[in-house]
Design goal:
It is a single chain. The protein has 156 residues and is mostly helical. It is built from 8 helices and no strands. The model has no long low-confidence stretch (mean pLDDT 91).
Length: 156
């Protein structure tokens, strides 16, 4: 049974996919697809994650394009793009979520919803972006499960 957060991330994937395909206003798509989430905290997480992806989509897509080598961005499947967008948005804007959790969740969702090697591809892109954040001292993470990152950062 998938975790509650994974179920929410899958809902986020569904909303972003529907928005991309139908071109309906995001608030309408959220209303249509997030209505089954009765827990306000889970609903807020989903809504904030969707908004973070859309607000930063141009920057996120540039990050992804810069990480794919020997491949045209337009040839990357839409589901792969959306899963990577979600992962990068979490790495960028959700300091309470450990990077390992973000990457593992993206891989597991890709295994379930995408083509055979999508999980490896997405892992490579997200891991590369995480390394870039760490090198540039731009990783904004805090809280439980993140002490090893903070200790390494403080030791420098």
């Amino acid at each position: 049974m998938p975790s509650a957060r994974r179920i929410i991330r899958i809902k986020v994937l569904e909303v972003l996919y529907a928005h991309e395909i139908a071109k309906d206003p995001i608030e309408k798509v959220k209303k249509d697809l997030l209505t089954g989430i009765s827990d306000i905290e889970k609903y807020n997480f989903a809504s904030q994650l969707i908004d973070s992806v859309l607000k930063n989509q141009r920057q996120i897509d540039e990050i992804i394009e810069g990480k794919i080598h020997n491949w045209e961005y337009d040839r990357v499947s839409l589901l792969d793009k959306i899963i990577m967008r979600i992962g990068i948005a979490e790495l960028m804007n959700f300091p309470e979520i450990p990077p390992k959790v973000t990457i593992n969740e993206a891989i597991e969702i890709a295994k379930e919803y995408c083509a055979g090697k999508s999980g490896q591809f997405i892992n490579g892109i997200l891991d590369s972006y995480l390394s870039e954040l760490k090198k540039g001292d731009k990783l904004n993470k805090e809280g439980r499960g993140l002490l090893d990152i903070k200790k390494k950062k403080d030791a420098k």
